[in-house]
Amino acid sequence: MAQIPAFSDRQISPDTEIWYSLKYAISASSGFQRWQLERDVQLQGLRLEQQVQRYLRETLETLAY
Question: Which domain of life is it from (predicted)?
């Protein structure tokens, strides 16, 4: 399970703090982990942030149909 980094030792905006928290919560979810396994080769070399963004985009596109 991914750990959420501590924010108390540096100044960041509330929006950035929310994004980090969401990113780590999403990456710990079973849906995201299953999605990662299904796309293992496609995701090689991508940072966690890029993977979460792609996951959210694909999920929203699916829901839009």
Answer: Bacteria
- 20-45: average pLDDT: 95
**Is the full-model pTM beyond 0.85?**
no
- Is residue 49 within 8 Å of 57, Cβ to Cβ? no
Q: Which of 12, 13, 34, 17 is nearest to 4 (CA)?
A: 17
**Token pair of 63 as six digits:** 């829901």
> Cα(22)–Cα(2) distance, rounded to whole angstroms?
12
- Side chain identity at residue 40, one-letter code: D
